[in-house]
Amino acid sequence: MHHIPNALSFFRILLLPLLVYQVLQGSMFGAAVTLIVSGFTDLLDGFLARRYNWVSQIGKVLDPAADKLTQITVCVLFAFTFASQFWFFFAFLIFKELVMLILGIYLLKKGANIEGARWFGKMTTALFYTSMILFALIPTLPIPVKYALLAAMCLSALITALWYIPSFSAYKRQTKMAELPPQ
User: Fold this and answer.
1) What is the CATH number of domain 4-177?
2) CA-to-CA distance for 56 and 90, rounded, in angstroms?
């Protein structure tokens, strides 16, 4: 039973080719349903891991990797699907996710014991899923609404990234202390 959260994270990664296919076929309703399933499994895996203490080292890597891959995939797809005037927002979100992914991999390679996502990261992810589901379900959203959603996502992503800087610094110090020879 304790592997269920990891299986759900892996399932989210397996949903990505389906999402790509649906968007490329113009089935935005199907893409929205896939995003809803992905978002639900993200919530469920986090809930189960914390509720039943099914947290694992692989889950600490797999869950954020699934988040990053999903968000990057959606941003790339939607940058090309929707009007090109939105490219800057999607490029910013992709850049932020890539930086967070690279830093996470770096810390893991250095042996940092990374905790789960913080509340502000979860809020940003929830805003992302909600906005992208709205984009997919209602492609005729007025342009000002699309700009407002994208601006809110970017602002939230920026604030989240800034709030993670102290955590990154603490993890970095943790890895440096582990590298010091015993005295």
Assistant:
1) 1.20.120.1760
2) 32
This prediction's pTM: 0.84
Domain ranges of the chain: 4-177
* Distance separating alpha carbons of residues 183 and 91, to the nearest angstrom: 47
Distance CA(15)–CA(39), nearest Å, equals 11
Mean pLDDT of 75-92: 84
Q: What is the pLDDT of residue 129?
A: 93
Dmax (CA) for the chain in angstroms is 65
> 10 and 62 in contact (C-beta within 8 Å)?
yes
Give the up-direction half-sphere exposure of residue 67: CA atoms within 13 A in the CB hemisphere. 27
Instruction: List C-alpha distances in Å: 90 to 120, 123, 160, 177.
Output: 20, 18, 16, 37
